[in-house]
Amino acid sequence: MEKKHPKVALIIPAYNEAERIGAVLDEAVKSPVINEIIVVDDGSTDTTAEVAGSHEGVTVISRNLNGGKGAALKMGIDSTDAEILVLIDADLIGLKVKHIEDLVEPLLLEEDLEMTRGKFTKGRTATNISQAVVPNISGQRAFKRKFLTDMPDFTNSGYGVEVAFTRQIRRKQTEVKEVILPNITHVMKEEKMGLRKGLLERFKMYRDIFYLLIKPKRKG
Fold first, then answer.
1. If you count DSSP H runs as helices and E runs as strands, how many of each does the chain have, helices first?
2. Is residue 135 in some structural domain?
3. How far apart are CA 45 and CA 103, in angstroms?
């Protein structure tokens, strides 16, 4: 008897990404390994929800207020019963179906593997360097639901959600497979918002990450 394919859900947190999320979803909907696509519109003030909702097969969950990346991801994860969860950013440039499949495939083939993490190469110099220096903060990853077992709540972690995942990896002492994602990058915050607002948002991101890094670990 042929082994049943586990349900795979793609979750995309998005805040004011109306100009970019369409291209990401154009590729995502082509993937034969994805059973469900969920976009969590995190209180956007533009037409992100409308653009996402115009794609057949995409479920849009809208938050009234911006709660940050951690809150958006938690809402998306809680909305599905999928056994494998794939997380990607809404502002990716150069995303192809193969990138998504490369993140998922190792989890289908290796029973003990719980997570894959994407690494940009051959894209923009700035993002390539960033991911080479701090690969743990990559927003492109896939994992089995059991990875979340007993994981502390990350709803209020903001951009620090990647650090929360890294802590869970260390706590469980589980393997993470790095997946090379060539010819892909994302739009930098300074380009989206202008220099001043972009720098402020980047500071917020580093603040969230730093807070999670120095926050005492939960006992037990």
1. 8, 9
2. yes
3. 31
What residues form DSSP beta bridges with 141? Answer: 87, 117
Provide the pairing of β-strand 84-87 with 8-14.
parallel
CATH code: domain of residue 119: 3.90.550.10
What whole-number distance in Å separates Cα of residue 6 and Cα of residue 169? 22
- In the structure encoding, which two tokens stand for residue 154, read together? 């990350």
DSSP single-letter state for residue 122? S
81, 92, 170 from 28: Cα distances, Å: 19, 11, 30
Model's pTM, two decimal places?
Answer: 0.82
**Cα-flanking dihedrals φ and ψ of residue 119, to 5°?**
-135, 120
CA distances for 193 relative to 196, 197, 202, angstroms? 8, 6, 11
CA geometry: angle 9, 10, 13, nearest 5 deg? 130
* Residue 219: pLDDT band with limits 50, 70, 90: very low
Kindly report, residue by residue over 40-62, the tens digit of the pLDDT.
Answer: 999 999 999 999 999 999 999 99
Give me the helices (H) in 54-124, please. 69-78, 97-109
- Flag whether 159 is in a domain: yes
The verdict on residue 220 lying in a domain is: no
3-state secondary structure 84-100: EEEECCCCEECCCHHHH
Number of domains in the chain: 1
**Nearest CA to 118 among 159, 73, 165?**
165
Structural domain including 64 reads: 8-214
Query: For residue 3, which amino acid is it?
Result: K
What are the distances in angstroms from CA 148 to CA 52, 77, 78, 142, 151? 27, 10, 11, 12, 5
